[in-house]
Amino acid sequence: MHTLPIQLRFNDIDTMGHVNNAVIMEFFDLGKARFFHECGFDTDMEDFTVMVVHVEVDFRGQIHLYDNVSVETAVERVGNKSLHLFQRVVKADGTLCAECRTVMSGYSRSAGTSAAIPDAVRALLTA
Q: What total number of domains does the chain contain?
């Protein structure tokens, strides 16, 4: 599982005094981007990329301004044209704050349609 520490900012906090749920979605996006980068998958490849087609999130606990949190990202499954990711936001003490499952589809920019995940990309994501 890939782990990315998150630096909380004052503007992440809503009127309830905790990190807003929309901001937690941004944490998941940051986790995906860093995971792809660190495993060597360049989402700006000439023609092939991936796009989000489904997101499922469960919010499990509050996050406050001075909490130390990280987003963890792992590949659950790589299909022919789909990539399934599991992510969670956890506090430094292990408290679970949110869980996310994302399905991404392979996409050909030139064809403007879904595309099979190339073997080279599959190897990077499952290494």
A: 1
Domain that holds residue 11: 2-126
CATH of the domain at 87: 3.10.129.10
Q: What is the mean pLDDT of residues 11-32?
A: 95
19 forms bridges with which residues in the sheet? 13
- 91 — phi, psi (to 5°)? -80, 165
Q: Which residues contact 30 (CB under 8 A, 6 or more apart)?
A: 4, 6, 71
How far apart CA 103 and CA 125 sit, in angstroms, is 14
Model pLDDT for residues 27-49, shown as the tens digit of each residue: 999 999 999 999 998 877 678 99
